Amino acid sequence: MRYVLIHGSWQDGRCWDATVAALTAAGHEAHAPTLPGNGDLANPAVTMAETAAAVVDLIVSKDLTEVVLVGHSFGGAVAQLVAQQVPDRLARVVFYNAYVIADGATVFTYVPESVAGAFTALASPDGTLTLPYAYFREHLMNDADAATAEWAYALTSPEPLGRSAEVLDLAGFYSLTVPMSYLYAYDDNVFPASEFSWHPGMSQRLPDFRLVTIPGGHELMFSDPAALAAGLERAGRP
Amino acid sequence: MRYVLIHGSWQDGRCWDATVAALTAAGHEAHAPTLPGNGDLANPAVTMAETAAAVVDLIVSKDLTEVVLVGHSFGGAVAQLVAQQVPDRLARVVFYNAYVIADGATVFTYVPESVAGAFTALASPDGTLTLPYAYFREHLMNDADAATAEWAYALTSPEPLGRSAEVLDLAGFYSLTVPMSYLYAYDDNVFPASEFSWHPGMSQRLPDFRLVTIPGGHELMFSDPAALAAGLERAGRP
Amino acid sequence: MRYVLIHGSWQDGRCWDATVAALTAAGHEAHAPTLPGNGDLANPAVTMAETAAAVVDLIVSKDLTEVVLVGHSFGGAVAQLVAQQVPDRLARVVFYNAYVIADGATVFTYVPESVAGAFTALASPDGTLTLPYAYFREHLMNDADAATAEWAYALTSPEPLGRSAEVLDLAGFYSLTVPMSYLYAYDDNVFPASEFSWHPGMSQRLPDFRLVTIPGGHELMFSDPAALAAGLERAGRP
């Protein structure tokens, strides 16, 4: 299969390195671009349109077809925008513990109030947010040892917040007939379970989807990339 | 142990073949009748009374005792009716991702509205429902590869709908003292998780039960019969 | 790491024997005292203050520091009381399918009404409760075979009820900055899932926590102590 992997907030294409290696070793093709606004492409003013356009451009310029488009976390919203632009090039869209945004909503619509306050308080004057290590280690890397958490944290960079507050036109997404999957790693504890859930909270907004569940947390690309690759195969196969 | 396995909608006794083989290899005895109305016994007008009677007759005619009675999906309702007729012959009733019907309710009472509409639209004039492959593959076989899904689909046949709309007298079931178990395969995504759950939705109507959870979906008899047999052993043991 | 393990109701320090062995074999240190009121220290009139004091005394008298304090079930409430008395000696508090009591509440605040009635009916005149085997086997040992359930049951003793009705002053606990984890064994079916949950029900009262989930039920110290020890390592590590 041919994967295009869209990373989440605070990350860049490098987060997928071990997952790409595992997928490639299993005979698949995988592309993992850095989104504009992240990593080397830092830009606090980046928009969702620019972000999605970069993935569309990758797919079109390389003439990729039969793509399994994977969105992780924030990348789920990007995957929705990309899917409605190039549906004919997609075999399936896979959401891995990812946002699924309603038409007319924003990414921040779904951040629990108890966390939104903390995010606002931590935001830099330039409109970016740096994740505190303690939060990252306990909530995103809860399934990893400390050394892995530290290594993964070293690869993060400030996330531009503006695009997550943009109202998204997703009418096209909700009329797509592209098959979709929700890959749910059920140890994820990024947000309080009493206020938020990836599955069934986010997943149930999809028109239809195949559910695949696996153990693990929000950053399996670091804590267990082989398990993530296996999950992506089960989520992405016909 | 001695198992009597009651299949679900669209299926017949053959669905259990690999599970029976696994149970037999582990030293157990297993019976897997085709219910009247299904498979070779197709009959759109079949009633719940006739359906349950066939299982009771099997148990009585073979003089089976200490039976672990297993109901899967729709077969849960049948198991309830059978249990209240021959409780003294049962060691335990096991529900595997199965309906548990309240006294005076119907099977369709518990089908989420969002799915009931689709079922009605798809029903044949003769009162049967043929499951579309896409739904079967994504929702019932989400834990299987495509080849397994296609093989399992080839074994399905139209389900007579009338009996699932029958009001069931289950007062006797709710005064039984037979031990019960709920075997919950937690990757099951037959119905939207936001509207329906096997556990704790269905399970909590049982007077009391042992919970056993396993990975996998609605059709472990096809996707992983060895795991299902192991689950049935844990659910069925004293 | 250095563990102090606080057992739950009906049990005593012996319940941890195999877990202590597994932790010790992995290079850790583990202490598993019998709480006053339980086992050899039977005392129907024991108070929560006396119960917590015994653990505090153990920690102080042995001059233990960098302690991973583990509370199981009822032991969660004890761990909260201990933590607010000796926070500087703790590296982390771990709750394994354990109560987390709100400031000013009691343990019994969180027992579902459907179970509280049965508990009251079963209570002895001396103010203790002996757990019926059938309940223990089906609800606490649902993941074990019958022989293991019988062996574990033989190690139980009557639980003094009075302390579980005591209003607890836990204001100090809720201002602690000690890291905390919730180790959730997700096959636990002690109480009806429709009325009660360890996670996210209990866990969400913690100021913050690392979530670690593992298969298994309420008594992994008996049904799978090696898995419990591994879970405690993941929950307890920095």
Automatic annotation (TrEMBL), chains A, B, C:
It holds the Pfam family Abhydrolase_6. Residues 4-230 form the AB hydrolase-1 domain. Keywords: Hydrolase. One of its GO terms (molecular function) is hydrolase activity. The keyword Acyltransferase does not apply. Gene3D superfamilies: alpha/beta hydrolase. It comes from the Bacteria. This is Alpha/beta hydrolase. The lineage of its organism: Bacteria, Bacillati, Actinomycetota, Actinomycetes, Micrococcales.
